[in-house]
Design brief:
mainly alpha, single chain
Length: 155
């Protein structure tokens, strides 16, 4: 029998705790968004990311950037964008300077739904963090999340 490296064990336990926290938060937000607005967490995240873009060069997301933003494969991202486009929440268009580039942008209907869903998302997030803070293993991670002040930027 070989001894397990304590540092690796601690690292693995930390990763498991982080994964658990993420899963709990995502599940709670998913239920709230689905019930209140017919949106999944990924759909909400994509609308949110696109709403933070601007007009002009570099202001919209190419499909690869969309995939990176919502952490999905290119094919899953295409299906996600198609669903939202079919609902009138997103549009896709060719880049003016590079006809191979396809960009995605949020529509007015998408912005309106996002504005309605944002309080639901925020309330579910707060409730999930409050619940997780009661767990001794998760409490330090909750504090770390709460101390983050920098907004997430889409690359």
């Amino acid at each position: 029998m070989t001894a397990t490296d304590p540092a690796l064990t601690a690292l693995s336990q930390g990763w498991c705790a982080l994964s658990l926290l993420h899963g709990n938060i995502e599940a709670r937000i998913e239920r709230a968004l689905q019930a209140g607005h017919g949106l999944s967490v990924r759909e909400y995240s994509l609308l949110d990311a696109l709403s933070r873009q601007h007009n002009g060069p570099g202001g919209h997301l190419q499909m690869k950037q969309v995939a990176d933003t919502v952490v999905l494969s290119q094919s899953a991202t295409t299906r996600l964008v198609t669903r939202l486009e079919d609902r009138g929440l997103l549009t896709r268009y060719l880049c003016d300077t590079d006809r191979r580039g396809i960009y995605t942008d949020v529509t007015e209907a998408g912005l309106s739904l996002l504005a309605e869903a944002r309080p639901t998302n925020d309330t579910a997030l707060r409730a999930a963090l409050d619940e997780a803070a009661k767990n001794l293993e998760l409490a330090p991670l909750v504090r770390a999340v709460e101390e983050l002040k920098a907004p997430a930027h889409v690359a």
